[in-house]
């Protein structure tokens, strides 16, 4: 496995692979890789001849008061994770390599980015869509792999690929959880011991909503009530949002009659964590 830092080197390697008729899977990441990322790389390795993992903490998807500087980084450990999961190439550019000083172009997906995390993080999805488009143009993968934990990101990228005619299959991969149910996230490292214990409340509250759906609950307001009550029972937790939306357009639903996404963002202390599940009406 090789690690390269420039677009030129990346393109050279990929050109040679394509000349040999090999397929390429891309796993875009911001590094500090955990078992969730590992599962994406493994899936990409099973479905493609070659796998590229991009590791780039993308400055333009962070708002002014967000955690760009604090975002955890460990390239040496990431290399081990990628190697173990059978990646072939790490693309690890600097911000200067990725962005021209005088760039005036960005990619914005409307509507789907207005609610959920988009309403709380106004610059986020434009930053994500711009960097993912650039990565798609640099790596030209056959398939790209994204985690379902960032459910809105996955829906937005699928829509962007459709709208802009990228010839790339977008593959969503299931959330990987800790033993106690907390969804794996690079941001879990921000949690103190007490906060880490408290953070199980996210998954526990979603499980209660799932139980209610299984028992035939049809009203979104009832589900948000169940989740909200559970979250409020944890003193270290503060609700950022609890949303029930249709899973394609991400528009709020009142009565559940199609596939829905139940998505939450919760502060545990100062750390904002997200989690979700989708529910299909059979
Ligand atoms: O999900 C992430 O880690 C990032 O948003 C992504 C897709 C790598 C773009 O920077």
UniProtKB/TrEMBL annotation:
The entry's keywords: ATP-binding, Cytoplasm, Ligase, Nucleotide-binding, Pantothenate biosynthesis
Binding site for ATP: 30-37, 147-150, 176, 184-187
Biological process according to GO: pantothenate biosynthetic process
InterPro entries: Cyt_trans-like, Pantoate_ligase, Pantoate_ligase_C, Rossmann-like_a/b/a_fold
Coarse class of the protein's main subcellular location: cytoplasm
Residues where beta-alanine binds: 61
EC number in record: 6.3.2.1
Subcellular location: Cytoplasm
UniProt cross-references to PANTHER family, sorted A to Z: CYTIDYLATE KINASE/PANTOATE-BETA-ALANINE LIGASE, PANTOATE--BETA-ALANINE LIGASE
Family classification: Belongs to the pantothenate synthetase family.
Name by which UniProt lists this protein: Pantothenate synthetase
